[in-house]
Amino acid sequence: MLWWIAPAGSDIPLCATDLPPDMSVHVATALDSSEDTPACDAVVIAAEFSLAEKQSLCRSAQERDLPLLVILAEGEGAGSELETLSQAGADLLLPCFHLASLLHGLRRLVEDRRHLAVMRDAQVVQDQARRMLKIAHWHYDLENKRFRMFNGEVFGLEGLEHSQLDPISLTRSLSARVPAADLKRITNSFRQAISDGQESFCHYRWHHDDGQWRWVEMQLTRSDGPLLQINGLCVDVSERYQNQREVTRMAYYDPLTGLRNRVLLERCVDELLAETEGGSSKVAFFYFDIDHFSRINNVLGHDAGDELLRLLAARLCEHFKACGTPTDDMLDSLAAGYFEGAGCRKKGLGRLAADSFGLFFRVAEEESVCRETVDAMADELLALFNEPFLHNGQAIYLAASIGISVSRSGDTARELIQQADLALHEAKAAGRCCSRYYLPDMMPRLSQSLQYLDGMKQALMRREFSLFYQPRVSADGRRLLALEALLRWNSPEMGMVPPATFIPLAEESGQIVEIGDWVFEQACQQLVAWKQGPLAQCKLSVNVSARQLRTPGFVDHCADQLRRSGVEPSRIELEITEGVLIDSQLAGDALGALRALGLGISLDDFGTGYCSLSYLLRFPITAVKLDRSFVRQISQETEKAAVVGAVTQLAHTLKMDVVAEGVEDIADWQALQSLGCDQMQGFYFARPMPATELECWLETLTP
């Protein structure tokens, strides 16, 4: 519909036949807005109006956003009139009435307006999509050093005019909403995009007006066309990061204690190592675990063990002021691949494995100051275990061993942790509940241990193991009463490997179970071989480890071997250490079943463990072996003699034999004999020897 606006009484130079079939005309003297007025597609203002009247009509049409064509009267072609009408809202000006020009102009005017409406609708849809997806798209003019921005709420800068968006004002606005570390990443991304001309990505946080922190992902590209500019696309990815928090928590934090796990701990240590490289400080690392923690799980259950680990983690965090449960901010940083918030510039704590923890901290480079600081920290850590942990109202005491490593130039976190782990093994070997520093010679010893472990896997198959036998004689030294079977390993590659070297490794690795079964079988076969001859009545003792006793079917295996060989069970004695008896339920059941088979039970290394006297009453023990630490120089130390005398009397009251092991001189032998010991074992009488040499040795005994 075309509106023709002309003064009253003026001629209308149009008729219906002049117009296209799809266009009709409505004639009026003014722009009225009554309900009966037909809809308007375009407005034509006739030439008969004065310039002032045309200007007023143009403003009315502009207010209603109507496409407007003005026909100029004669004399209105001057530049000032044209400018006046254009500013008033005229979209098209005709110098005079000309039907073809009028129709062409109207058609173009309507099409342009329709196209503009489509563009506006598309822009509305795009704006809605940007708001829904939380996307901002902007350009930075490199020549004029100005920003052009759309949808600025993603930046949190909706209050800024485009003209204000110069780098200085933008940086000032961002600095109030963006953390300094993130602002640095934004700056670096800009520099990279400007200098390299390549796509650049970064993530940053900004503080929204609602008080929440949001994560924004920004992509930058440089445009080198007619306009030299940086194109930026920013997306609010906060929801995605919230979903990634739990994934990040599982990837970098221990679910039981909330501490850093090994992966994050290594990354934090690497970060601190990089900071201290070439400076005036080093990094110290403590690798520590709970001594005999498996006993807690075995006796109290794994739930109790988990609770104790949580209590320990809380105590460690509180004492060392080290980060415990991660904050949302830290999880967001890790999800984005930034570790700045996850580390600590001075120290940090984490869980490395089951009951193993790691503690790292910065120390001075000067050797004496470093050693003093590390020793003090180790003492603090060990002292934390002096106070009991309460579980279900029960006070439980724990102890720990610590391995210590101090960084050297070029060390990585993995190397530092491995070194501390080696030192921890040394602390365990030194008696536990202590700390040891890493020394360079520990690595070759570890390599040697690995070589032993590999060799033991083949030793049984290749028949490299053998049994030596050490005699136990009567108190007067004249009669052979028993033999102790002692394992020996002759490796083709490594020669004779000392038992003190390979047996602990076999215990730790679990290979002792298979080796122990072989020893028991060999002992039975040897007793069968001695059935005829001078050793026919001799007893044989075999060492049994705690791991063997815990193995299902161990008792059945012993019973089966006795049945197969036909050996009298009373001729075999099983030697156990006090450590076997810590788990009283397990020890009581297994030892009771073995004793029921007719086997003797000897308590080895008596006096070096825990609650020894109570064990004599609680378990089916038939003999007590006094540890060599009580035997050595007993003739010169009255305190030792008093202890041995008391133990001997108690054992005899309980109808147990007393064996003194480690007898090495005549004075100690005579002192032990006077105290009532029943049997003697030691180098003074005989060293361990193969079975082939025993008969010759028997001939040396004085009848």
Q: How many helix segments? A: 23
Shape: rod-shaped
Low-confidence stretches: none
| Residue fraction in strands | 15-25%
Mean pLDDT: 83
Q: If you compute it from the alpha carbons, what radius of gyration comes out, rounded to the nearest whole angstrom?
A: 47 Å
Largest sheet: 8 strands, mixed, barrel
| Content-based structural category | alpha/beta
Helix content range of the residues, please? 40-55%
Number of strands: 26
Biggest β-sheet: strands ordered side by side in the sheet: 18-19-21-22-23-24-25-26
For the record, give the distance between the C-alpha atoms at the N and C termini, rounded to a whole number.
141 Å
Describe the structure.
It is a single chain. By secondary structure, this protein is α/β, with parallel strands linked by helices. It is built from 23 helices and 26 strands. The strands form five sheets. An eight-stranded mixed β-barrel has the order 18-19-21-22-23-24-25-26. Strand 19 and strand 20 (495-497) form a beta hairpin. Helix 13 (442-459) crosses helix 14 (499-509). The longest helix has 35 residues, at 99-133. The radius of gyration is 47 Å and the shape is rod-shaped. The termini are far apart. The mean pLDDT is 83.
Describe the structure concisely.
The chain is of the alpha/beta class and 703 residues long.
Write the layout of secondary structure elements.
Elements: E1 2-5, E2 25-28, E3 42-45, H1 51-63, E4 68-71, H2 79-88, E5 92-94, H3 99-133, E6 135-141, E7 146-150, H4 167-175, H5 180-196, E8 200-207, E9 213-224, E10 228-236, H6 238-252, H7 262-276, E11 281-290, H8 293-300, H9 302-320, H10 328-335, E12 347-351, E13 356-364, H11 367-383, E14 389-391, E15 394-396, E16 400-406, H12 413-429, E17 435-437, H13 442-459, E18 465-474, E19 480-491, E20 495-497, H14 499-509, H15 512-529, E21 539-543, H16 546-550, H17 554-565, E22 572-577, H18 584-596, E23 600-606, H19 612-618, E24 623-626, H20 628-631, H21 638-653, E25 657-661, H22 666-674, E26 679-681, H23 694-698
Parallel strand pairs: 1-2, 1-3, 3-4, 4-5, 16-17, 19-21, 21-22, 22-23, 23-24, 24-25, 25-26
Antiparallel strand pairs: 6-7, 6-10, 8-9, 9-10, 11-13, 11-16, 12-13, 14-15, 18-19, 18-26, 19-20
Helix pairs in contact: 1-2, 6-10, 8-9, 13-14, 15-17
